[in-house]
Design a protein that fits this description.
Blueprint lengths: L3 E8 L2 H14 E8 L5 E2 L4 E5 L10 H11 L3 E5 L2 H14 L3 E5 L1 E4 L3 E7 L4 E6 L4 E5 L9 E2 L5 E3 L26 E5 L6 H13 L3 E4 L1 H5 L21 E5 L5 H4 L6 E6 L12 E4 L2 H13 L1
Parallel strand pairs: 1-2, 1-5, 2-4, 4-12, 5-10, 6-10, 13-14, 13-15, 15-16, 16-17
Antiparallel strand pairs: 3-11, 7-8, 8-9
Helix pairs in contact: 2-3, 4-7
This protein binds flavin-adenine dinucleotide (FAD).
């Protein structure tokens, strides 16, 4: 496969670093990594840059990161799709006089980078061809993860932020999750309604050893689940063997993020679109169906 000369990966999470390293190594002869949090490295990485204080705001290092990447003129910059990732991607793209390609799920290289991402809420695929330097935010699960290797002799970047004073860092109150790699997922939609029924769905997830996921409104409007657990075109993509959708209507913006071997749906509306996507469907109230299912599975 034709490769470009050099690339950068910019990411904080270990999972993202391992995935993006594998992705960059597919397309570039040289891969450099800016590890924004813990000093992690991966097979295929040629040089690692870390931040002097990974607990401080990434914004303080933005100038140094942009300068470093601009000096090395890579043809490809793969950036973790996170709040900090998007911030840095915008600054890097602006420095190269190009734009960022976000939510990308597929990349090809034919002398220029061609990316694919869902458009119009998942109803279309947008295909974009990059300028000289492609700055791409990649959805999780787009590449198989590279192996982790010890991070030896990283180059430490110093803060060059202006106008920002780092005061304190507090951990967000949300559970860590690796939904995109989960083998089983119980996903709750708005039909779950309240904490009591959510507890039933969590019990089911415990019994079948599944990760919990949700639809966007459950996280963003009802605030019943953390935002890193919503699945769909603008959230996490999942590829489990088993996907149990409880009180999920099955809108395309949600289902386009689901590629499951087997789908089970529980919904009180027999006309809900999810029933045309599932292998097994149960028409009923979540509060009635879930306890019966849990009891059956526990037997
Ligand atoms: C640009 C764009 C991007 C979007 N991105 C995403 C995304 O990434 N992910 C995502 O999920 N959504 C996304 N959405 C929103 C999406 O269009 C839907 O609105 C959303 O997926 C619907 O969530 P839901 O199924 O939980 O809720 P609803 O559509 O309100 O459906 C609730 C379902 O629960 C059933 N129900 C109600 N009560 C019960 C009960 N007691 N027992 C059993 N069933 C019950 C109802 O029959 C209904 O089918 C996006 C929208 C836009 C415009």
């Amino acid at each position: 496969m034709e490769k470009c000369k050099s690339s950068f990966v910019v990411a904080a999470g270990k999972g993202a670093i391992l995935e993006l390293a594998a992705g960059a190594a597919q397309f570039a002869e040289k891969v450099s990594l800016v590890a924004l949090a813990a000093p992690v490295s991966a097979q295929g990485i040629d040089a690692v840059y870390t931040l002097e204080d990974p607990n401080a705001s990434v914004a303080l290092y933005a100038k140094a990161i942009v300068k470093l990447i601009c000096e090395q003129k890579p043809e490809l910059v793969l950036v973790e799709q996170s709040r900090n990732g998007r911030l840095l991607a915008g600054l890097i793209a602006a420095a190269f006089g190009t734009s960022v390609q976000t939510d990308v799920s597929e990349i090809e290289y034919d002398g220029a980078f061609v990316t694919k991402r869902a458009g119009y809420g998942g109803l279309a695929v947008k295909v974009e061809r990059s300028a000289e330097t492609a700055v791409i935010c990649v959805s999780s699960g787009s590449f198989p993860a590279a192996g982790e290797v010890p991070c030896e002799a990283p180059v430490v970047l110093k803060a060059e932020g202006e106008g920002i004073t780092f005061v304190e860092k507090k951990e967000k109150l949300q559970q860590r999750t690796n939904l995109s790699a989960a083998r089983r997922v119980v996903c709750v939609g708005r039909g779950i309604g309240d904490e009591e029924k959510l507890a039933l769905a969590e019990e089911l997830a415990g019994v079948i050893e599944a990760e919990m996921g949700c639809t966007r409104p459950v996280a963003e409007e009802d605030h019943l689940m953390p935002t890193n657990r919503y699945i769909g075109v603008s959230g996490v993509s999942v590829k489990p063997e088993l996907y149990v959708a409880v009180g999920v209507s099955g809108q395309v913006q949600h289902t386009s993020g689901v590629s499951a071997t087997r789908v089970i749906a529980i919904n009180k509306d027999e006309h809900a679109p999810i029933f045309s996507e599932c292998d097994f469907g149960v028409v009923g109230e979540a509060k009635d169906v879930l306890p019966k299912l849990i009891a059956l599975l526990k037997d």
